[in-house]
Amino acid sequence: MIRGDTVVSMEELLVIGEDGAAESRIMKFQPTSAVICAQLGPSACSDAPLAGRTRVTLDGNRLQMRERTAATDPIDTPQMDPHIRNLAVSTTSEWTVVPERGGRRLVLHSAGPAWTAESAADGGARISLKSNQGDVRRILVKIDADALRAIWAGFVHPGLPPHKHWRCYLANATAADGAFADVLAPRHPPLSHLAGYLRVASYMTALDAFLVQPVADHPDPVVRKLVGRPVEQLMHTRFAGLQPPSTFAEVRSIGARKAYVAARAQGASDEAARAAIAGITRDEPLQIHVSDEEIAAYASLQPGSADFKRLFCSE
Fold first, then answer.
1. Which residue blocks in the chain are alpha helix, DSSP H?
2. 188: alpha, beta or left, given left = phi > 0 and alpha = psi -120 to 50?
3. Which residues contact 123 (CB under 8 A, 6 or more apart)?
4. Residue 266 backbone dihedrals phi, psi, to 5 degrees
5. Whose CB has fewer CB within 10 Å in the chain, the N or C terminal residue?
6. Is-contact 33 47, C-beta < 8 A?
7. Does 119 score more than 60 pLDDT?
């Protein structure tokens, strides 16, 4: 999507429950937190804001969106949000479906209208929408929620611009998944250590979110005021035994975990990495939720490495 001279990179998610109740959400490439939400405003308060709700029914090759309701959650800007919602799959009442790859991939066709946007010469402050009759084609690929979260974290962790790298990265990251075949064109065969990298990238992204978690005894009074501020962190992977901090001491413990993994990824031994954070942990046992093998995989995909360049198409 184009906003003025800026590319707005997002990905639509259609989340369907067993009863057919569905949410259309817009996956963003900006992690969120109470601090980010306060700094950047309402559009930064969710990493996958709601675009609309519907109920999905499938009758033969007809996919119908019933009981459609639009959401009011901010997604980007007041000028862009109506356009983004109009492009959502859930805004079209009926689609013709062609199932592929054992039903894991659905090719949707609709007679329109299709919406295109034209930015005015004022830098995108005004968006003109035009309706074009004709075949509208969308492709939905079913993916496990945790697998998607890992792929998302693997991308947002190094902080590359999504409009340049996301689609190529997604193609490479899903090269071993037949449901994505012919939809995306991977440049390279699957990396044998990709799963380990994604696991640690997910861990580091979760730690980053917890590091800026407002707590009542935070030394910064501005941060203390943000305790209880609602944010949606739907894209973060959950790790058993790793909970959001409730005290600043727990925040420091989160920081120690991140420092430990970073040191190990730079080649430090377990003993040396634990010695480096001893001043924070006060020699108390510190659980690390990723394995040595996963850290080694993460280390091999550090920015600048050959595998990093291949995975993220930054050669």
1. 34-40, 81-86, 145-156, 162-173, 194-211, 221-224, 248-265, 270-276, 278-281, 292-299, 306-312
2. beta
3. 4, 5
4. -90, 5
5. C
6. no
7. no
Contact status, residue 108 vs residue 95, Cβ threshold 8 Å: yes
The Cα–Cα gap between 61 and 232 comes to 35
Contact predicate 102/80, CB 8 Å = no
- Least confident residue range of 40-54, 118-132, 236-250, 290-304: 118-132
Q: How far is Cα 262 from Cα 279, in angstroms, rounded to an integer?
A: 16
Q: What is the dihedral of CA 75, 79, 83, 84, to 10 degrees?
A: -10
- Give the Cα separation of 216 and 34 in Å (integer): 13
63-108 pLDDT, tens per residue? 999 999 989 999 998 988 988 888 899 989 999 999 999 999 999 9
How far is the C-alpha of 183 from the C-alpha of 105, rounded, in Å? 10
> How many Cα atoms occupy the beta-carbon half-sphere of 255 within 13 Å?
15
- pLDDT over threshold 90, residue 115: no
How many helices and strands (H and E) does the chain possess?
Answer: 11, 11
What angle is formed at CA 7 by the lines to CA 200 and CA 115, rounded to 5 degrees? Answer: 115
Provide the whole-model pTM.
0.88
DSSP 236: S
58: enclosing H helix or E strand: strand 50-59
Q: 162, 307 in Cβ contact below 8 A?
A: no
Q: Which residues pair with 64 in a beta bridge?
A: 57, 94
- What Å distances lie between residue 201 and 21, 49, 159, 194, CA to CA? 31, 22, 11, 10
Task: For residue 177, give every residue at least 6 positions away whose Cβ sits within 8 Å of its Cβ, in sequence order, or none.
Answer: 143
pLDDT of residue 128: 40
**106 neighbors 63 (Cβ within 8 angstroms):** yes
Question: In Å, how far are 118, 128, 163, 256, 270 from 2, measured between CA atoms?
Answer: 9, 12, 10, 40, 47
